[in-house]
Design goal:
The chain is α/β, with parallel strands linked by helices. The protein is built from 10 helices and 15 strands. The longest helix has 20 residues. InterPro entries: ADH-like_C, ADH-like_N, ER, GroES-like_sf, NAD(P)-bd_dom_sf, Quin_OxRdtase/zeta-crystal_CS, Quinone_OxRdtase_PIG3.
Length: 324
């Protein structure tokens, strides 16, 4: 089969489409013919050599795909060859085929095209698992950064569906406007004094921050937290090391946690996928959550997709199309 490999750690130019060995299916697994693969910021980190796959996972890049079942492994029930599906992966998505534990494979949202569905499961699983962890509830104030990206735009809509007041940051004016269009009660550019705007809108503080920036905003987030506020760090775009003010944290009885979806064991991922289907798919069907805009690239142009994501010019989600 063909797959995208990174010749070495480096820029987008190290990615190339080559022939690799065919895959074999073990008990409890499914082999999928990939229709499309989502492109995520974690993929950029892996290409750069900063985010190696967990032990036993495919060394290929790619954390989510859509496609059809090609082979059903021993002991797997409920799936037949030819069934449409989406899958949450620990790696291997940038390829014509992928092997996945059956619990991480689910039917796509009813009525959704498989290319559009390819960029959904990683985003939904990340947001649902972290908002569950932090117990976001109706009436609370929620802040998310990168509101015009895949995770941010989904988080805006999902948090609003839970009854939270949603604040979001983005870059250019059109991205800020997009955040408002998908449900953010207030959105502002991170190029301005966004923290001051948050303080004016939420003088009692923010109950939950979903933070993909990391170190650069840590001190600011501590200052913005409400009493018993929660900070959930899911990315390090702004660095990995910063000083935590324990006195400020103690005074607010605050909680700071950091999570990663990729290295979780299959049983945990299967449970998260189950919750996504149960909670998110109905919201997509009834229009409460709208799919984010997509930019698609052929699989052979993975390097261009990575360059586009790194540029910051994209809106919504990027997807590699393998076959239609």
């Amino acid at each position: 089969m063909r797959a995208v490999v990174a010749r070495e750690a480096g820029g987008p130019e190290v990615l190339e489409l080559v022939e690799v060995e065919d895959l074999t299916v073990g008990p409890g697994e499914l082999l999928l013919d990939v229709t499309a693969a989502g492109v995520n910021r974690a993929d950029l980190l892996q290409r750069q050599g900063h985010y190696p796959p967990p032990p036993g996972a495919s060394p290929l890049i790619g954390l989510e795909v859509s496609g059809h079942v090609a082979v059903v492994g021993a002991g797997v029930e409920g799936w037949s060859v030819g069934d449409a599906c989406v899958a949450l992966l620990a790696g291997g998505g940038y390829a014509e085929q992928v092997v996945v534990p059956a619990g991480q494979v689910v039917a796509p949202p009813p009525g959704m095209d498989l290319v559009e569905a390819a960029g959904l499961i990683e985003v939904a699983a990340t947001v649902v698992s972290n908002l569950d962890l932090a117990h976001l509830s109706a009436g609370e104030v929620f802040l998310v950064h990168g509101g015009a990206g895949g995770i941010g735009s989904f988080a805006i809509q999902y948090a609003r569906s839970l009854g939270a007041t949603v604040l979001a940051t983005a870059g250019a004016a059109e991205k800020v406007a997009y955040c408002r269009s998908v449900g953010a009660h207030h959105a502002f550019s991170y190029r301005d004094d966004w923290a001051a705007q948050v303080r004016s809108l939420a003088p009692e503080g923010v109950d939950l921050v979903l933070d993909s920036v990391g170190a650069r905003y840590l001190e600011t987030h501590q200052q913005l937290m409400a009493t018993e506020g929660r900070l959930v760090v899911i990315g390090m775009q702004g660095g990995a090391r910063a000083t935590l003010d324990l006195a400020a944290l103690l005074s607010r009885r605050g909680l700071v946690t950091a999570t990663s979806l990729r290295p979780r064991p299959p049983a945990e991922k299967a449970e998260i996928c189950r919750r996504v289907v149960e909670r998110v798919w109905p919201l997509l069907v009834d229009g409460t959550i709208a799919p984010t805009p997509q930019t698609t690239f052929p699989l052979a142009e993975a390097s261009a997709a990575h360059a586009h994501l790194e540029s910051g010019d994209h809106l919504g989600k990027l997807v590699l199309v393998v076959r239609r």
